[in-house]
Amino acid sequence: MINNAFWSGKKVFLTGHTGFKGAWLCLWLHSLGAKVTGYALQPPSKPNLFELARVDELIYSVIGDITDGPFLKKAMMEADPDIVIHMAAQPLVRESYLLPVETYATNVMGTVHLLEAVRSCRNVKAVVNVTTDKCYENKEWVWGYRENEPMGGYDPYSNSKACSELVTSAYRSSYFNPSKYEEHGVALASARAGNVIGGGDWATDRLIPDCVRSLLNGEKIVIRNPSAIRPWQHVLEPLSGYLLLAEKLFEGNGKYAEGWNFGPNDDDAKPVEWIVRKLCEKWPDSAGYNVDNNPHPHEANFLKLDCSKAKTVLGWHPAWSLDEALSQILKWVYAYRDGEDMRKISMEQIAEYTRTKTYV
């Protein structure tokens, strides 16, 4: 369980704060009393949660490119953080096919620039590099990948995140070695989450945003790969894992400085078509979908995470089932459709999740 007292007054440097996951994490950190400095490009879509929830009023926001090493270092040194959480990324598989150079520059060299900046900041004690479940070499097998499985990645996005993991491992061995923690005082870990879903995501070529756009417009949903199985989870699930991991890193003298999986329970790894049918059933108006049978770039068919380590060692567990996650997304979408205060709605959803988490 997350320790509210721990976060009160902590200085957190968060990259990618204008994105979907980043905006949710800003809201949560603010509710915990943390002092957040965000570093990212402008929000990646219109509309976006960052602007709808007026996140810039709650934190100190720096607009900058993660590949601009000198500017990133300057921003981090001025923030003088206790904890660094790195989420800035080019996060889309299909876009990585179109922009491979930019994807590698952002996801690989961005990680290098971030860790170089950390080396210049004397007060950083904990660093969490957020990658993805797609960093593993996908063998299309039926069981979940564990943290000690080989890195891989078929497409530029997945492979760039595997490279980011290798960069993290190299910096941990070379500069932030847990066996020499007393010398450098930095605990560096990586976090690998499943397919994250939630209100406030308007990215292109993602299942839930595509579904929401179609539902709001009264159009049929179009899906590309109905049988693809993914470890779906509400955005607050992995974020709770990142927060818990950061606490453990800060207080653990290097003990937790390694890779961690944060995914749903096995029975929530469902096919795309299952998700779409559920959303159509839950939507108050008539809704349907079609399958796009045109050729598309390669995407994995079967992907699951084994989260036994996080559950056993960190005491982290998912709180919401996939069905509950979909209900929470639609509750958020209804509020957005009706013009409600989305900061208030999002904060209420965080509070509801936290209450549920207490009893899991």
Can you put this structure into words, describing what you see?
The chain has helices spanning 4-7, 20-32, 49-52, 69-79, 93-98, 100-119, 156-174, 181-184, 207-216, 236-251, 272-282, 308-314, 322-337, 342-358, and strands at residues 11-15, 35-40, 60-63, 83-86, 126-130, 187-193, 195-197, 221-223, 229-234, 259-262, 269-271, 289-291. The chain contains 14 helices and twelve strands. Strands 3-2-1-4-5-6-10 form a seven-stranded parallel sheet, sandwiched between helices. 44% of the residues lie in helices and 15% in strands. Strand 2, helix 3 (49-52) and strand 3 (60-63) form a beta-alpha-beta unit. Helix 6 (100-119) runs parallel beside helix 7, helix 9 runs parallel beside helix 11 (272-282) and helix 11 crosses helix 13. The model has no long low-confidence stretch (mean pLDDT 95). With 360 residues, it is an alpha/beta fold. It starts with a helix and ends with a helix.
Write the layout of secondary structure elements.
Layout: H1 4-7, E1 11-15, H2 20-32, E2 35-40, H3 49-52, E3 60-63, H4 69-79, E4 83-86, H5 93-98, H6 100-119, E5 126-130, H7 156-174, H8 181-184, E6 187-193, E7 195-197, H9 207-216, E8 221-223, E9 229-234, H10 236-251, E10 259-262, E11 269-271, H11 272-282, E12 289-291, H12 308-314, H13 322-337, H14 342-358
Parallel strand pairs: 1-2, 1-4, 2-3, 4-5, 5-6, 6-10, 7-9, 8-12
Antiparallel strand pairs: 9-11
Helix pairs in contact: 2-14, 4-6, 6-7, 9-11, 11-13, 13-14
